[in-house]
Design a protein that fits this description.
This protein is α/β, with parallel strands linked by helices. The protein is 51% helix and 15% strand.
């Protein structure tokens, strides 16, 4: 069959409560375009019955494609799987939790076609949630851009519309340590932002504080060597200060006959040096772990099964796409 004009890609993890309304709103938005389409839902090892419900909807949504991964690989890996199996000339990427309604993608799609850009992404002008969520989100983006050599727009959302050539270029990067926000910015092309109002999610998000911290560490270490450079400068500064302090103690002894200042100051210096050394070794360990993961060359996801509706695209990913995710 011919490739559809639009592919909608979304992932499922504890998503059963959203799927019925998400599919209804997505279909309404897609039918408003008057173009051919497919909906690609990726089951990221969801422990609820999200997969079973999605598969059952293939009977009444012939454009639906359900990509079932062999286990939970993580949000970014599942999104990559969806992009690799999307055959549309334009790809809409969206989370299915309805924090951003599918209708918002219509404005992004219109801006993409009017401007000739290759990607239009959504971003929040003002972050939602309580003070901690707003503060931690602002800290994440500012910290990332301060440490990274690839600038990522602040408060950027998952939701975006991309051209076929942009998606193909993204899939060719071959990263095993995935941070799609940074990878998309690094890919280049013309990228435009569109402000989007994001609603508060119903129920508890699967992105806990620990997972957000892990994402921040992964994002920074995947896109910048600056922390290593900064660690060198900090270590050099501590070394120079230590020599200066030793010189100060010796001069006091020679000029004033003071006993070398005691155990407390020396213990503090030793503890500080040990902390700096341990932090530096840990930082090196993170980067070596990234290298280890990359050279292992394992696939970023494994597909267990694909279920297609009767009118879903039968096109398979190209050889270049398959190579990018092996």
């Amino acid at each position: 069959m011919n490739a559809p004009a639009i592919s909608v890609v979304s992932t499922m993890y504890r998503s059963r409560g959203f799927l019925e309304f998400f599919l209804a709103q997505t279909l309404e938005a897609l039918r408003a375009t008057g173009e051919s389409f497919e909906i690609v839902l990726v089951n990221d090892g969801s422990p609820d019955d999200s997969r079973d419900y999605a598969v059952s909807r293939c009977a009444d949504i012939p454009e639906l494609v359900v990509v079932d991964l062999s286990r939970n690989f993580g949000h970014h890996h599942a999104m990559q799987a969806g992009l690799a199996h999307a055959a549309g000339q334009r790809v809409w990427l969206i989370d299915c939790d309805l924090e951003v309604p599918p209708a918002a993608l219509l404005a992004m799609d219109e801006k993409l076609r009017a401007s000739g850009a290759d990607m239009v992404y959504g971003y929040q002008e003002a972050r939602k949630g309580g003070w901690f969520e707003r503060w931690s989100g602002a800290l994440f983006w500012r910290g990332l851009n301060a440490l990274s050599e690839t600038r990522v727009p602040e408060n950027v959302l998952t939701e975006r519309v991309m051209t076929r050539r942009f998606v193909d270029a993204l899939l060719r990067l071959g990263d095993r340590n995935l941070f799609l926000g940074g990878m998309m910015s690094w890919t280049g092309f013309v990228q435009l932002g569109l402000p989007v109002a994001k609603k508060q999610r119903e129920g508890q998000s699967s992105y806990t504080l620990l997972r957000r911290l892990q994402l921040m560490v992964n994002a920074i270490s995947s896109f910048s060597a600056k922390p290593l450079t900064w660690m060198f400068h900090v270590g050099l500064t501590i070394t120079l200060l230590s020599f200066a302090y030793v010189l100060y103690l010796v001069m006091r002894k020679m000029l004033f006959g003071d006993a070398l200042l005691g155990f407390t100051s020396l213990a503090a210096m030793v503890a500080l040096s040990l902390g700096i050394s341990t932090t530096g070794l840990g930082l090196l360990g993170i980067y070596l772990g990234k290298v280890f993961t990359q050279v292992q060359n394992r696939p970023t996801f494994i597909v267990r099964d694909i279920v297609r509706g009767s009118r879903a695209s039968l096109l398979v990913p190209s050889a270049a796409d398959r190579k990018a995710v092996r």
